[in-house]
Amino acid sequence: MSDSTSPPVSTVDSPYAELQRELRHIATLQSISGTLGWDQETYMPPAAAPLRAEQLSAVSSLAHERLISARVGELIAACEADTAVTGDEDEAANLRAIRHDHERATRLPTSLVRELAEASALGMHAWREARERNDFAAFAPHLVTLLGLNRQRAECMGVPEGGETYDALLEDYEPGMRAAELRRVFTALRGELTPLIRAVAESPHRPDTSWQSIPLAVERQAAFNRSVLERMGFDFSAGRLDVSAHPFCESPGPGDTRLTTRYSEDELAGALTASMHEAGHGLYEQGLPKAARFGQPLGEATSTGIHESQSRMWENFVGRGRPFWEWALPQMKRDVEVPAVQALDVETVWRGMNVVAPNLVRIESDEATYNLHIMLRFDLELAMLSGDLAVADLPGAWNDRIRADLGLEVPSDAMGCMQDIHWSMGAFGYFPTYTLGNLYAAQFWATIRAELPSLDEEIRAGDFAPLLGWLRANVHAHGRRYTAPELCRRITGQPLSHEPLIAYLREKLGPIYGV
Ligand code: ZN
Description:
This protein is mainly α.
């Protein structure tokens, strides 16, 4: 049966059409996990946690089984023999990425998948309790188990030729990136960042941040945040902005991109920067060609680092820039009748938004010192995976490095090596993507400024459409057609480099700190 709105039913489907249907079905299952995960972090009652864990595990194993099924393998092989697919540049790129995902998924024995899922659930639980009690010894055995399982996982995935164990794990987040390349770029970045941070620390200038504690009711902050996000181009008919303890962006599928932020009555711009960050992720999700390509690589983000480049661009390059505040502060004054807000000036706010000061906590760190936090984690996770650093020695190694890099004493492991959730869930290879986000954002930003010479005036007028249009055309529209290193070369004409980020930081921090 078909009516006039249904596509004609073909009795002989091409393998590629059948494969796309399978992938859409798998993506639909995964999108259920996405919606459940969002609900878990926002509105779910706490007592529903055990049921939610079962729901998530049931849905994700269905999706995994379907992806590794023999039928999907046969369809991929049939498509690879079909010149109608391989002869088309887009579809060939799509198919290569499908093959890549299918192979990685099938290389993992189901027993290891299950062991990893259990160890990470137990690890996160133990981490929460151990962090609460500042008891690293209670968490250490879980970390040992997770490292062991991830070494096994890397072996199953296969270490690329000339590469190392870490590369096999990094591939989950940054396809095509290698630890050796990260070392090269991070070492160069560190070489210039450390003296810059030292010069800032020694500068007599201290931007005024007291205005951040002007109290502003949550409802008024929420209304202001929403108006900024609308102006940025975030489509609220296909998205939401809610509240959670840790802000995130979850996009289950086409037409559904959900952001969260957190409000504090004594941090005037804190929620705004968090919202703009997540909206950067959300704009990428809304800009991907998902409607036509749901479940297909060309409809997905190319890497975690590129995703982070989008969020950091809106949060930092736009949202901490002077042109942005020349537009946003008058908006805020118009919406908020608080006298202390009315008395603010752009110069004070802009300087206060760009304070650089060492912080023990990664997520509270500024644009410059943040990267030292990431390099520390990258080096220590490499050393733990290779066995050069015993888990028992992690706290000492961490504290030494914080002292050397940031000049701070770590008062407790809870504020030190147990501050982040990533290792407790077995995510090794994730941390570098944050600094990759900063690096890609800076490198793209330099190109954008050259290609959009009136960018500052547009932002000053609250017109973000040219910037969003550029990102849509150059980043979002491609999905996974290019890997992150390929995309970087394509957009900027250069391989990944530390130089644009250093140049950007110098240009901004120069007038603020006289460095
Ligand atoms: Zn992010």
